[in-house]
Design brief:
437 residues; 24 strands; globular; alpha/beta
């Protein structure tokens, strides 16, 4: 811990922060985008030559993808600022054993990739991952040639080889299913069409995949069909394509994790700056800038840095359909904003690392906030300050980080149980928190 740190107690299973005699502000550098690095690594492993991915920092989820790709036959060398990937060399000796950890992205992205490679796999999962739904991707993979053990099985056994043709996925379930198919289907010999029915929610995550695939020389065309009562997006994916990219690729800074410290700037007593962010990034969570501005925070942008200066914030209405990962930290900002903030379209929060509808409500309720759910929306009544209290992370990295940011405006210590859930996406979070306090 830093000298005079607000982190006053660190135990194996809890961490206590007391910001009563501390200010909060300064500059921190964004870590590498987890969303971007997942996709860059998978495409590198499928490519025809080695690729070095430049990045800042790592996380358990990124490590899960790297480890899984090694299990599939890639060679990966990781340094503090880069990951070098030598492409997968398929072996027919035995079915690969891969470990996805608790990473839903790793699992959902690699299922179609493994199917396209035809190598099969025994896939090991941890935490809630085996409980998280795979339908309708599961049924589509089986319909196109794979044999997969029942959902919920751990390890999940799969074998066979995918065939091309028409795939159909509902757009309101998980953009990760769409991304997985976009990553896997170009590896087939046959052409494929991916039909996404209804509105494609979390579309920015799919755009990241399409952008990365384009960098790797993969051609995919898109058609949008809309009528008065239906909507459909069709991705046409030629088979027999070769993944090829420049030997060195730089990853974006992570807007999802930067959102925690940017939000801190909106509720703290001093400005907070996050550097290393790409203002042209396709990451959907870049929306944090506009949302904080709507709350009333003062935002300034210079080069790759965003500075948020605290102002009196007021309640707003938020649509969470494309930004589910921002809901925990936006709920903290809402709890300290005048009036009642409403966050709509929260249904997909229930199938994250925790049921984030329940865990956000429980966390803020423990800190004195009047928050409740009604008709698929969260209602959050703002307060001048939060109370001290003890909260659980529920083994959810975004809940743990949100609780830490909430402590900035708490009238006493906030204890976070299972605080190291942050390792899933941001192992250095508490160190960066201390540097700003």
């Amino acid at each position: 811990m830093f000298k005079n740190s607000p982190i006053i107690s660190t135990l194996s299973d809890s961490l206590t922060i007391d910001m009563s005699n501390h200010s909060f502000g300064g500059t921190v550098n964004a870590i590498a985008s987890k969303s971007h690095v997942h996709r860059l690594l998978i495409c590198a492993a499928l490519s025809d030559s080695p690729v070095k991915v430049l990045k800042v920092g790592t996380s358990k989820d990124i490590e899960a993808t790297a480890t899984s790709l090694i299990g599939l036959g890639a060679k990966i060398q990781e340094n503090s600022d880069s990951i070098t990937v030598n492409p997968i060399v398929k072996s027919s000796d035995s079915i690969p054993e891969i470990d996805c950890g608790e990473s839903g992205s790793t699992l959902r992205f690699l299922l179609p990739v493994i199917g396209a490679l035809g190598c099969g796999a025994d896939i090991h999962m941890h935490g809630r991952l085996s409980e998280r739904p795979l339908s309708p991707l599961y049924e589509e993979l089986i319909a196109h040639g794979l044999t997969i053990s029942p959902q919920g099985t751990n390890p999940l056994h799969m074998e066979g080889k995918l065939t091309g043709g028409r795939y159909t996925i509902a757009g309101n379930v998980s953009s990760q299913f769409v991304t997985g198919l976009l990553l896997g289907l170009p590896n087939l010999e046959e052409d494929s069409e991916l039909h996404v029915t209804g509105v494609l929610q979390s579309r920015p995550y799919v755009d990241i995949a399409l952008d990365v695939l384009q960098h790797y020389s993969i051609k995919i065309t898109e058609e949008h069909i809309s009528s008065s009562d239906s909507e459909e997006t069709i991705f046409r994916i030629p088979g027999g394509q070769t993944f090829h990219a420049d030997p060195v690729i730089r990853s974006d800074g992570d807007w999802s994790n930067a959102a925690f410290f940017l939000s801190a700037g909106a509720i703290s007593d001093l400005p907070v700056t996050v550097s290393g962010l790409n203002m042209d990034s396709l990451q959907g969570d870049k929306a944090i800038v506009d949302i904080l501005r709507q709350f009333g925070a003062e935002i300034s942008i210079s080069g790759d840095s965003v500075t948020v200066t605290p102002k009196k914030t007021k309640a707003i209405t938020i649509d969470a359909a494309d930004i589910p990962d921002l809901v925990p930290i936006l709920s903290v900002v809402a709890s300290l904003s005048e009036g009642t903030t409403v966050i709509n379209n929260i249904e997909r929060l229930r199938i994250k690392e925790s049921d984030r509808v329940m865990t956000v409500i429980n966390t803020l309720s423990a800190l004195g906030v009047n928050i409740f759910e009604k008709n698929n929306s969260l209602y959050i009544e703002g307060r001048d300050s939060l109370t001290s209290g003890t909260v659980s992370s529920y083994n959810d990295h975004r809940i743990a980080m949100s609780a830490a940011i909430a402590s900035i405006r708490a009238q006493g210590p906030v204890t976070i149980e299972d605080p190291m859930a942050v390792n899933k996406s941001y192992p250095g979070f508490y160190k960066d928190f201390e540097s700003l306090a």
